[in-house]
Amino acid sequence: MKGMSKKNLQNIRHIFEEKTGTDLSAIQREPAFPVRKIWILAAAMVTCLALAAFAYPMFSSLDGDELSLSGSYAGNGIVHIRVENRSDKELKFQHQTKLMRWVTSEEIPRLDGKPVFENTEFAPHSEGIMTIDLSAAYDMQAIAENYNREEWFYLLLTNHNFLFGQDWMCSVHFGQKETEREQEKTAVSVLPEAVRNVEEELAFYFEKAYGDVLLAFNGANFQYQQKVEEILARFDGTVVPALGPVLMVGGPSEFLDPEPIMGKPPEGTIFDESIPGEQQYLLTGAEWSYTDAYGRMVATADEKAWVQTVTLPQHQGQTDGGVGLPLIFLFVYDAEQARPENHAFLYGKIRSFAELESCKVLEDGHYAIYDATELIYTDLDVYLDYFLSTRTDVYCDDQIRQRVQNAYDFYRNKENLRAMYTYLELP
Questions:
Q1: Local structure of 184: helix, strand or coil
Q2: DSSP label at 385?
Q3: Which of 85, 141, 209, 411 is most exposed, with minimal Cβ within 10 Å?
């Protein structure tokens, strides 16, 4: 670093005199005052000014600052991002970004060049378009050739070196240019059920259904994940993640392989009277799932539910095989962490375990299990009707509807679930 010039020293002295009311010129006339002390005061003033600069409140999701980002591709590596600054602070993006894959959270291999930014500063409560040219930083032709046309990516943006709370994800789709996407009709199903008690920022996601869209190719999922991360980052409390233990086994007295398998109903349980008793066990199943029948994520991107399913035939008279309808949604948490004062993120909302107490199915020394089905849907007929509307390979008549109702009633009974599920204790 270069030394301090005379002009620098004069400027610092002027600021110091103004802030403290001290006349350094008078002090200099006193021969007993060492010149070295002037330099100490000057250095201290520089430090104070630097600290003051860092103390200026910076836009951060951790402070509750909100923004909305919407990306669209214009071709030739040009991405337009609509930025809406919803906070009282000025937002200044740095001229750096990372292009990431949603499905793997890995960055796309970079070239030697740098992305070029235009319009990166946004005043409080304002909006505008920021433009980023990625062509020097990433091989756009290779992206078009090597990745699925339907795949979504995101740009990681920052206003302070990608520090936690100061980085944001903006989804972008390279399969079509923005002009083409504007003309495309988006096929979404508006549900008859009203959007229920979810975080306000996430309501957009629950106003639609995505049952006919693959999870990895649904841009709404990634926009939702981005908002969820911001909400959790700002939350002043402990959010406990749902677990996916492999030790859930079925049968009150059966100890099977330590793999997730369906809970086996007690012998004599009848779901469908048209099916022989020895085949009733084929009518239900269980699996881990990230989504419900609407194709909507049931928690965060890393959490899934243990879902009890009911089997629907693919043609009239089919008695073996079929299509599983997600029916009952169980979430598993570490028993020690599932305390009343802690929280879980379930279906678009942060909920305390005190609120979820009535949903608790069972608890042992390892896990606490909650039935969150009513947080996901409340009208079984509406839920089934939507599922049928997205599947052309499912047969359903009044008998099958009764099968679904019977399975629902059986698995919503906590005593039945407690009798079916236990854990395999390993030595």
A1: coil
A2: H
A3: 141
Q: Helix and strand tally (H, E) in the chain?
A: 11, 18
Residue 142: which H helix or E strand, with range? helix 140-146
- Gyration radius of the chain's alpha carbons: 29
> Checking phi first, is residue 159 left (phi over 0); if not, alpha (psi -120 to 50) or beta?
alpha
- Dump strand ranges (E) for 59-125: 67-75, 78-85, 91-92, 97-101, 116-118, 121-122
Torsion angle defined by CA atoms of residues 121, 125, 129 and 134, in that order, rounded to the nearest 10 degrees = 50
Q: In what order do the strands lie in the sheet with 152-158?
A: 97-101, 152-158, 167-173
- pLDDT attached to residue 40: 57
- In whole angstroms, what separates CA 76 from the centre of its chain? 30
What is the percentage of the chain residues whose pLDDT exceeds 70?
76
- Tell me if 334 sits within 8 A of 245, measured CB to CB: no
Amino acid at position 1, single letter: M
- In this predicted structure, what is the pLDDT of residue 43? 59
Buried b (16+ CB within 10 A) or exposed e, 61-93: beeebebbbebbbeeebbbbbebebebebbbeb
| Average pLDDT of the residues in 323-341 | 94
Tell me what pLDDT residue 146 has.
85
Closest CA to 313 of 283, 288, 269: 283
End-to-end CA distance of the chain: 63
Is 53 a residue whose pLDDT tops 50?
A: no
Nearest Cα residue to 65 out of 124, 131, 130, 121 = 124
Q: Which residue has the tokens 């990634």?
A: 222
State the CB neighbour count (10 A cutoff) for residue 6: 7
d(CA 79, CA 57): 29
- How far is 214 from 205, CA to CA, in rounded Å? 15
- Which strands make up the sheet holding 367-371, listed edge to edge? 284-289, 305-312, 323-334, 367-371, 360-363
The pTM assigned to this predicted structure is 0.68
SS (H, E, C) 272-325: CCCCCHHHHHHHEEEEEECECCCCCECCCCCCCEEEEEEEECCCCCCCCCCEEE
For 249-294, how does the pLDDT look when each residue is reduced to its tens digit (9 = 90+)? Answer: 443 333 333 333 345 677 788 999 999 888 888 899 888 899 998 8
CB 382 within 8 A of CB 289: no
